[in-house]
Specification:
mainly alpha; globular
Amino acid sequence: FLLIIYIYLIFNSIFIAQDFDSLVRSIGFIRFFLLAYAIFYYLNIENRKYKNLVLKYWSYIFFIVTADLIFEVFLHKNILGFSSNYPGRLAGFTGEELKVGGYYFGFILLTLSYLLYKNKYSFLIFFCIFIIVALLIGERANFIKILIIYLFFTFFVAKNIGYKNIFIFLSTILVLFIFIYNYNSYFNTKIRSYSPFHIIDVDKKEKLKHKGFLGYQRHFLHYSTAYKIIKKNPVFGVGMKKFRNESTKEEYNPAKGITGYANHPHQTHFELLSELGIIGYLLIILNILNIIWSSFKNNTKKDLFITSSILFMIATLIPIIPSGSFFTTFTATIFWINYSFLITNSQKIIKNNG
């Protein structure tokens, strides 16, 4: 299935995009398929003796990133001196790229799963800390996705840690949210003018006064442009990584002074449909849905790492909520790492060769 997708990406780049940069990107995209299978193989060989080691170090890295973000909240810069030039957002180790929310979204449940297997009480403590830090990062879309997968993850682990404990800690998180929101002025004056409520209150600067435009917000302007591109190029799209070129055309811009130009539509479904068309969209989405379903069905031992990645994949497919580009290295790496935990159909190969 992945090889068919890969062949289609190359076909699309040669005959639809007709662009050398698009072709190079499509040829290089196979590295993510190989990454997913390599991680899966490595975590499962020799009776999974390396799995605990890898997950331990991934968790250590997540703790370091979390501590660094808390450090940045109070000192307005992280331990390497990186700071955000966007009010209400944290930079972390990603610097001016401001992508730490995507990293947090991709690894938060995997880290919590590792903690729960190791120690129930440390899980409960970091269960609260992580969601508060996710709020403080200031990325609305990623925080909403994290909140959704958090609630479903809570449902799956409630039996393991006790419904009473879950109720207490969810109540604690709610109280902390209310406290932070009500003391927004404290954050503004005491913590170097940092405010996490960019994430809750829509930034007035992002509103676009354009009649009839849904939401009056910049992301919906990208969606509107992508929709027009899809209508004009429904079958094959405009070519991989060509939205950035197509969206500059005057025919897709709704009014003078208002443009839907962007490097990508900032939403996975719109990106796949506008660049790869219905054919490419169905190939990728059906593959994702298939592996989600097969993993859910075969997860008889209730492996929390598989559950975590299933929830991540589902949240990635939520429509409307903005997302990073499916084809960029940063976003794709996180996606295919989670994908690697769901390659359940390869377990027979591992068992036969292990």
